[in-house]
Each structure stands twice: as structure tokens, then as C-alpha cells.
Amino acid sequence: MIWKLIQNIIEKDAPIVVGLDPMLSYIPENIKKDAFARYGETLEGASEAVWQYNKAIVDAVYDLIPAVKPQIAMYEQFGIPGLQAYVKTVKYCKEKGLVVIGDVKRGDIGSTSGAYATAHLGTITIGSNTVAPFDEDFATINPYLGSDGVKPFIDVCNQNDRGIFVLVKTSNPSSGEFQDRLIDGRPLYELVGEKVAEWGSLSMDGEYSNVGRVVGATYPEMGQILRKIMPKSYILVPGYGAQGGTAEGLKPYFNEDGLGAIVNSSRGIIAAYKKDPYLSRFGEQGFADAARQAVLDMKADINGAVFGK
């Protein structure tokens, strides 16, 4: 599966993933009004607004980007209707040729971990039918429980040509409370990185592994260290833009082949219309066009700073 993501990145010349993390406050009033008119001010109404908002943004940007990353919590907050909007979003993005990274941050052990893996990356047999419940291409994984929690995902990945991104060094300010703690004189994130490299050898897809990792854009010096520890693992890089990560700071995340990393932006794209220069140029009704321009600007920023294009 990682090779499909790489092919998309090369084709679009854009190491970019758009985070589809909708909040009701992001959604233009006319979309909410129409959804509430049909379903009321209910979980169903909110979920319909989310779906219509997502669809408009995907229609505006799918030809520019290789992948999307819907954060499932933003859908779960609307209960079962929200999860239905999540499933529709995943399916629609795949129909548009996009790789879907389910930002689900699952982590458990044994049969529970296996069930999570089946739900998001695998298939389940029900009578004479075999179905894929959520059908993402990748899922994000919390490694806190160790190999018992990760290997069931790797098994499902190998059976279904899927992939995972393991949390190694996250972009949030308090990540250092645990991730930077020294163990035998070394920070924990380095030890986790070494384990990811070991797990990655169990699921290779050409030069790169289907087992990638998450390393925040807000810590480029740590990204440089982890790039060396895990040369065959793709890095999913959150924290660009709104969280303070810069294009210049992304250089250490990429390999000499120009590959090895994909950079996420969520509200900086899907809610771009709320801030200048996009607000004054596009307004609320042009939210999808603003998202498209934000993708173009992000692509130019990264390609210029990292690759000199």
C-alpha cells in the first residue's frame, strides 16, 4: 500500500495530505441551514452538514493531492450518524483516487487489537459475505502497549495490502512529558523509532515499509534523528502551519530520493476561508475554492523550501 501512496505523491508532485477534521464551526451557514431543514438540529442534521462540507472540499482539491486524513473523533462526536458520514467520506475519497489515512489512533492487545485492525484495514466474513467495515488504506496506531498491540495490525496489513502510521514523536506541546523521557540515557521516542524500524521489516513494499510513523513538524531536530533511525519508514508529519511547523523545518523529514514524508494540514486548508488572505478573496461561499488555493500555496511553500522548485 505504501507504494500506492508514493505513486500518488509523485504523480501530483505534492507530499501533502489534507486532514478532513470538520467542526460545525467550520461549516458555512448555508450548508448547515440546508442540512437542518432536512434533518432538524439533530445528530443527523449535523452529520449531513459534515458530509456535504467534506464532499465540496474533496471535489475542489482531489486533483491536487495524493491523500486525505479524516480524524475519526470529529465524526464520533456526532454519534452513529457521524460515523456514517465518516464511512461516506472514506468511500467518496477512494472513488476520487485518493489514499485514505484513517486517523483513528487505535492501540490495544490481542483479539481487541485484531478487531480494531479488521474494522479499519481488513475484512470480516458474515455468513457468505465478506465486507470491509471502514475500508481505510492506512490507520494511525498508538504503540504504548508494545508489540502485542501493533503486530495484529501488521498481520492485517499483510493480508489486505494496507498500512499503518505509528505515533513516535507527536506535535503537541506536552508530548515531551513521556516521549522525551530518558531511558538508559536515550529519549523514549528514539527507542520507539527503533521498534518501528523493526516492525517495518515485517511489511516491506519495495524500498519502503507499510509501517510508517508519525513525527510532528514542530520538532525538526528530532525528525532528523528519527529519519536516520527509520530510513525505510514513511513519515506522516502533522503540525505544519496552524501548529507552528514551517516548510523550511521539513527538510530533515525527507530522504535524498525526495521521498519519505507526507505533510498534513487540516484546518489550515478546510477552514482556510475563515482567515485572510483567503477570507477577503473568497468569502464564506467560496470556502471550497479557498481550500484549493490553500493547497496550492502549501504545495508551493513545501516544494520551494524543501526541494528548491
In a few lines, what is going on in this structure?
This protein is 47% helix and 17% strand.
Give a description of the structure.
This protein is an alpha/beta fold and 309 residues long. It has a single domain (2-302), classed as Aldolase class I (TIM Barrel, Alpha-Beta Barrel), CATH 3.20.20.70. The chain is 47% helix and 17% strand. It contains 13 helices and 13 strands. The protein has helices spanning 2-12, 29-39, 43-61, 73-76, 79-95, 110-121, 147-160, 176-179, 188-200, 220-229, 267-270, 278-282, 287-307, and strands at residues 16-18, 67-68, 99-106, 124-126, 129-131, 138-141, 163-169, 182-183, 186-187, 204-205, 208-215, 233-237, 261-265. It has an eight-stranded parallel β-barrel, surrounded by seven helices. Strand 6, helix 7 (147-160) and strand 7 form a beta-alpha-beta unit. The radius of gyration is 19 Å and the shape is globular. The model has no long low-confidence stretch (mean pLDDT 94).
